[in-house]
Design goal:
This protein has 208 residues and is an all-alpha fold. 84% of the residues lie in helices and 0% in strands. The radius of gyration is 19 Å and the shape is globular.
Amino acid sequence: MNPRQLGSPLLRFLEVFADLCIVSIYWLVCCIPIVTIGASSAALYSTATKAIRDEKGTLTKTFFSEFRDSLRQGIFLSLIFVGGCGLLIFYNFLGESIPSEAGYFIAYWAVVILLTLILTGTFIYVFPLLAHFRQKTWTLLRTGFYLSVGYPIKTLGLICLLALAALAAWKAPLLMLLLPGAYALIASIIQEPILDKHTAEVEDSSQT
């Protein structure tokens, strides 16, 4: 057996590991203004899918090309996302005045959990959609919501994966140099078949 063939899986693993670290750093830097989280996340997903998984194009060129193309709409989507998070935080503060009876307590937290799942589930799909399509903002939001509801098991899995990544980063901040890219890579494996199916449906509807 060729020794180079024996070493190729290890070399490929190291290459992917390095790429994930680099794209994670790109994502972190481009998220610093906060309002660019959307464009940065779309670029992260696109790079994980094209440059890392499919090995098409270079890492840096793919990321910043997608970031530039998504920037304007990504800023608007970021403001909506941050605004939604702000409303959830405000609603959480209001919870301090909720009566302590069990019924009120359960109802309050049920609403909090439901709103959190809707917001998180929607935007888990919105940013990959932004990387795939150039559509109106409302269309992206509506499609993101429909996909999150249409694939509940996969959506919950993605939310759990995101929560685990956030928890790991909180416990070990240095993992932020790897986790964004790793999450995007794993998420793309789950989401690409969904987005491909949606793309086919969009193309079919445009032809009729």
